[in-house]
Amino acid sequence: MIADRAQTMGAARTVAVLGAAGHTGRFVVSELLRRGLTPIAVGRDGGRLKALEFAGQGVECREASADNAGALDRALAGAAAVVNCAGPFLDTADAVASAALRAGAHYFDVTAEQASAQLTFDHFDAAAREAAVVVIPAMGFFGGFADLLVAAAMDDWDAADDIRIRIAFDSWLPTQGTRMTGARNTAPRCVIAGGRLERAPQPPARTVWDFPAPFGRQSLVELPFSEVPLIARRLRTTELHTYLNEIALRDVGDPLTPTPKPADATGRSAQRFAVEVIVRRSGVGRRILAQGRDIYAFSAPLVCEAVERVLSGEIQDIGAQSPGAVFDAPDFLRALAPEHLTFEIAAA
């Protein structure tokens, strides 16, 4: 009986990571290990998985791809949660989330794709409720992070007149997965304008914004990501607009820009980011500014914090959810500071 109980407790902290051999997936596996959780590394190429550092860390490796339902079922067996890092998510999220629900496991992914996040909400809310699990898409830098920042800035407000999200990178060295996703994601991007979801204007709006050092004044282009369906799902706002600086867009748009390079023992790159959110209602403004390093590496503690809180039973919600709806946003952000993040909340 004691052995059975120990096995049950171990299974309750077992997390399957799809795309574990990829750039973000490797960070996620390492972060799960750091937190004392038990990762299962899942990928299309079992040999590649075993050639990585996982075997030496005692991580079980399983081979599966999103287009093989039987292999997915075998790969997710015994997992209490699944983190999908295998993009493009328009091609993988539906299959992996379906397999997670068949396994009775919570599902998370790190998509930046609006269409993928919205389809996950549409397809899996009822099924997740029936299975008594949580499904949270876009729990990465693009999407979930902005949703949490907005929730923290909103505080006790349940609606806003205007939400502006401004993002600055000092550089953007894109992974191969980012380039593949960009090529695959041709769906029109949406904003909220006049209280309704609308296609983002073309050509995109441009503006200038003063960020704190080391960024300073930046030229920005309107470019919404998966934060739009997350935020729209849980609160009312008349306007919601996201902007990214032109430096980042030039880097990611240049086919000669190299992939990220490790700058320390953790494998993080030297890339710096700043995200500033300003929410307004009835003439009153609230502001939150967050800064950190390496958007890919940062997505790992972000999604793993969400996984750990769900597995610990901290939240009682089930179904398809946005992070701002189910987590205490300021407390969640404080859990990432100061190792991964600094942030401050003030009047705007």
Structure keywords:
alpha/beta; seven-stranded mixed beta sheet
Strand content: 25-35%
Main sheet summary: 7 strands, parallel
Spatial sequence of strands, sheet with the most strands: 3-2-1-4-5-6-15
- Distance separating the two termini: 58 Å
Average pLDDT reading: 94
Order of helices and strands: HEHEHEHEHEHEHEHEEEEHEHEEHEHHE
| Tally of separate helices | 13
Helix/strand-derived class? alpha/beta
**What spatial form do the alpha-carbon principal axes imply?**
globular
| Amount of helix | 25-40%
Unreliable runs, pLDDT <50, ≥5 residues? 1-9
Based on DSSP secondary structure assignment, what is the total number of beta strands?
A: 16
Rg computed from alpha carbons, rounded to a whole number of angstroms: 19 Å
